[in-house]
Please model this.
Amino acid sequence: MGVAAAADWWQNAVIYQVYLRSFRDFDGDGVGDLRGVRSQLDYLVDLGVDALWITPFYTSPMADGGYDVADYRDVDPSYGTLADFQELLADAHRRGLRVIVDVVPNHASSQHPWFVEALAESPGGEARGRFHFREGKGEHGELPPNNWPSIFGGPAWTRVIEQDGQPGQWYLHLFTPQQPDLNWENPQVRAEFEDILRFWLDLGVDGFRIDVANGMAKAPGYPDRVEGCLPEDRSLYLDRDDVHDIHRAWRRVLDTYGDDRIAVAEAWVPTHRLALYLRPDELHQAFNFPYIKAGWSERAIRQVIEDSLGGLGASSSWVLSNHDEVRPVTRFGGGASGLRRARAAALLMLALPGSAYIYQGDELGLPEVVDLPDDALQDPKWERSGHTDRGRDGCRVPLPWSGTTAPYGFGPAGSAATWLPQPDEWASLGAQLQAEDQESSLILYRRALQLRRTLNRHGDGFEWLDDKDTPPGQLSFRRGGGFVCTVNFGPHDITMERPGELLLASAPLRLGDNLFVLPADTAAWWQADNEGRGTEQ
Ligand code: GLC
Model:
């Protein structure tokens, strides 16, 4: 086997997000690592994904789970070595799995040598020019240069102590103070990142997930935000038109490696702005975050699907969750009904044209862990918000693989406590247990991914199956080759005309010859039969 070069492999790919700290711990220190991922590649092959995206594993003081990079060309010792990464990459490729890595260009770590150098230098020096250093306002420069807030709470500026021991300039950090924003007006920054891309491309990675791909460009002159503007108005420092020059330059780098290396944008922007990142000379993919935000609502989901299929100008990359969002089971109501909806939502997403990202543990139906003790919380949001926002740790709890006691096979027997505590509930959700249970979420995902490979041979065709009899609360659509997906968003069971042969359902259905009952919060996949049943509009 091995990955064959295929220019458009990503258009329909299912890409599995490995949140490295929490995937599998090979060395027993309580933190996931690269050898842990390597040891579970067969699990990913059995699941049926095409590629994995691994969250940052670079040298980092871990002020933000590794999204604070001190060395972009090396591996943090807690995750392994560069050789471990190369072995993982080779093993993945041997199994036909592609590997995408994260790149974090909006900000570096405050321990990055460039920032250390900048602090050691006087105001106005060359090293400071790689970041956003400014004089403060007020008589003694004691006020921040402007009123921009940090996305994690508090001001977006921190004042430094200069070499003479006195407070001096301020630097910009849209996230934590340990994540100084890089100045993308500086040609050294641009050149350095293109070189970093080449470093990983030369090692053989298949692409990049670009962290905060809508960051980087800041309003010239750093003007204040208008007092009273909406909190979500970040137009002075996010999603500015200038950012697209950077993506075009990166695309040129990627293209020199052939046409199968890709980049996917993390950009929390509305669909019509997302389309800009997907222009032919820019990025291949952009996460469809409006889809995450649509919740479990037939109308909202339908709207996002329509906007995306019509308005992106490229194929959509659907996402149900990631390491920053509340797990779907919990987002959709929690408990048995949350799980039911999350299973239905997975079948819906996997039936849509385009690619799909699966966040680790969603295939196990894991809920958000909502009761982590205060002193276990690690997300910087918790501290930065003055303990008002509990942050994102609840979706980052180490995975359960096997066994009935912690660490549930996450690490070897006798390993150190996991970096976040696992709940007792993990005992019944382990991958090994689910692999033997035909009703489990893991088996549902495996079947779906296997079937999806056949569907994708029928291209991108998509049409809603609506008519005057379409009951409210449901969505039905047909893809090429007579494939039909029906979803009931609840709250009532719906009796519908049977579209054909049942392929897969997220919960048991009652089937008659011509009719069937689609229970609340259930999705089903169908193959319309040869007589055309279900294919009439
Ligand atoms: C992205 C990452 C998130 C991180 C932030 C800052 O949104 O997904 O985890 O905290 O960027 O790098």
